[in-house]
Amino acid sequence: MRNTQMSKKKRRRENMWGMLFCLPCILGFLFFALLPMCTSLYYSFTDYNVISRCNFVGLDNYKNLFSGTDPYFSKALWVTIIYVALSVPSSLIVAFCIALLLNTEVKGKGIFRTIFYLPSIVPVVGMSAVWLWIFNSDFGLANMLLKAAGLPKCQWLSSESTVIPTLVFTNLWTVGSTMVIFLAGIQDVPRQLSEAVEIDGGGRMAKLLHVIIPMMTPTIFYNLVMGIINGFQVFTQAYVITQGGPNNASLFYVYYLYREAFQFMRMGSASAIAWVLFVIIMLLTVIMFKLQKKWVYYGGE
Amino acid sequence: MSMTRKTKKRGMQILVYALLIFGSVLCLMPLFWMIRSSLMTNVEIFMVPIHWIPEKFRWENYKEVFTTLPFLKYYANSLKLVFFVVTGAVITSSLCAYGLARIDWGGRNIVFSCIMGSMMLPAAVTIIPTFLMFRKIGLTNSLIPLIIPAWLGGGAFYIFLLRQFFLSIPKDMDEAAYIDGANHFQIYCRIILPLTKPALVVVGMFAFMNTWNDFLGPLIYLNSDDKYTVALGLQLFIGSYRAEWQLMMAAACLVVIPAIIVFMLGQRYLIEGITMTGVKG
Questions:
Q1: Does B132 touch chain A (CB under 8 A)?
Q2: Going residue by residue through chain B (281 aa), what tens digit of pLDDT does each one get?
Q3: Phi, psi (5° rounding) for residue A27?
Q4: ipTM exceeding cut-off 0.95 for this assembly
Q5: What is the CA radius of gyration of chain B?
Q6: Residues paired with A46 in a beta bridge
Q7: Could you tell me which of A156, A149, A102 has the C-alpha nearest to residue A134?
């Protein structure tokens, strides 16, 4: 009897402590995640523009986006999808290859790992200035090198057809953070499995295809999901390097959203744009989680 | 037989090194190009054949950057911001991680799932209402909107990372302290925090990097240029001095080099931390 009373008292005390320790982050979740989500949904049905009164307009903001009244919406969506479709697979493949190289018996592994990781901590604004200069079509280093090699000039950032590939290329510069995660995963692949392939007379290729890649699918999946979520939110490069140009060829979705909200002060329609992004990312994530059953291997199941 | 195998292995090794060195050159080249251009005259930067090392190091470029824009002021603002964000993020995310990892209480699972869910939430969706909220209470054009979130958990990722570390500490240590009459706050301060210093350093570094590199946040909240952070100051510089590449590179160095220095100081902890949890910031 006394015992249960004690434990009840203890329970209550533990609940109090738990609540107290988690209080900051509970408040953070309420004020910086839940509440903003709800208010932005509400604003997306209004014509709020900060200055005049806020009127309820029903689905008008969404209709404007999908009917093509706002021509930039489909452009921005399309540009961003192409960027994601090019940058996510390319960075995953490059990161995976570097991780494979670093997983061999090389000296100075730690130094190489640091060098490859370094670019991902460099401030994007600072790097954007450097890319502007390197890919300048008249005087940049990239064209200087092409010329030295006897190749024709490229327009890089100043042509509609090359601006996205150029930005995809600059994104490859920061694959180090993904690579480090792959490397950690590869090092965790059980040795017996690779040895089993060796005993069966399989070479490097067999080891890669039948052991390393299947065992790495959870890590690949994680990097794929995060890559897509982050790819849809590219902003700084668009703002600093291209300002969405030339001719809106790099009008990234979040840059378009920023313009709508903070340059034109159309908070209502910007909130609708934000919610469409949210739904797209949610749908993609759900689809990927559904599809993962077909290709992601979780050991021990 | 074994001879050819040996040479084949040797060839393979040389290929691996060649690829790694080529990749490293590609990684370092843009940074090197930035630094070398920042120390040249506006004639030398364009010279063909390419000058890789400046004939004479032109430190005046930096002086010019500091006189055209109040970069010292931007540094002061950035440092102030970084200080408050890093302390806030380390304190509150570790408190919350302790609450999730070491206290068995009723709301634990639901709080944990909310935090994990918010990790997937695109920042772009919440930025408009958050801005409007701070605007309503008159706190825009100050560093406060950029600091407050750090004091309220600091970010789902940090909490997740610290929780992983805290879970790996054996329970019997704090149980012994508990029997001796210590409460959770004392256990947190005296047992858990000292044992997880490396993880706290990792969180502090991530918080530093993210704040130093943040662009969208300062861009939205700060509108008078005496409040600007270095990242924003650089953008102002890029906008107004587009043809003066050597000055632009000097300004870029001023933003990039502090981040590299901090990374170099703590890179061991940082990469180990990412490797350990399998997630990135």
A1: yes
A2: 456 777 878 888 899 999 999 999 999 999 999 999 999 988 888 887 788 888 889 898 999 889 888 989 999 999 999 999 999 999 999 999 999 998 888 889 999 999 888 887 888 889 999 999 999 899 989 999 999 999 998 888 899 889 988 888 888 877 888 888 888 899 998 888 988 888 899 899 989 999 999 999 999 999 888 899 999 999 988 888 777 888 999 999 999 999 999 999 888 787 777 766 655 44
A3: -60, -45
A4: no
A5: 24
A6: A56
A7: A156
Q: Best residue in B126, B137, B232 to probe A by mutation, most A CBs within 10 Å?
A: B126
How far apart are the two ends of chain B, measured CA to CA in Å?
49
Domain positions in chain A = 1-43, 60-295
Q: Euclidean distance between the first and final Cα of chain A, in Å?
A: 44
B159 touches chain A (CB under 8 A): yes
Judged on CB neighbours under 10 Å (0-12, 13-18, 19+), B24 is middle
- Delimit the domains of chain B by residue range: 2-38, 60-277
CATH number at A60-295: 1.10.3720.10
Give the residue ranges of DSSP H helices in chain B. Answer: 2-38, 60-68, 71-101, 108-120, 123-136, 144-151, 156-167, 172-179, 184-187, 193-195, 197-213, 216-221, 230-240, 245-277
Q: Which amino acid is at B273?
A: G
Q: Count A/B contacts: CB-CB distance under 8 Å.
A: 280
Q: Which of residues 55-84 of B touch A (CB under 8 A)?
A: none
CATH topology (fold) of B60-277: MetI-like fold (1.10.3720)
Give residue-wise pLDDT tens across range A28-75: 999 999 999 999 999 999 998 888 888 888 888 899 889 888 889 999
Q: Locate the chain B residue with the closest alpha carbon to A273.
A: B125
Q: Enumerate the residues of chain A whose CB falls inside 8 A of the CB of residue B51.
A: none
Report the chain A residue with the minimal C-alpha distance to residue B21: A112
Q: Which two tokens stand for residue A60?
A: 């008008």
Q: Which parts of chain A have pLDDT scores under 50?
A: 1, 301
Interface of A with B in 10-49 (CB under 8 A): 14-15, 17-22, 24-29, 31-37, 39-40, 43
Of A86, A235, A123, nearest in space to B216 by CA: A235
Per DSSP, A151 falls in state: P
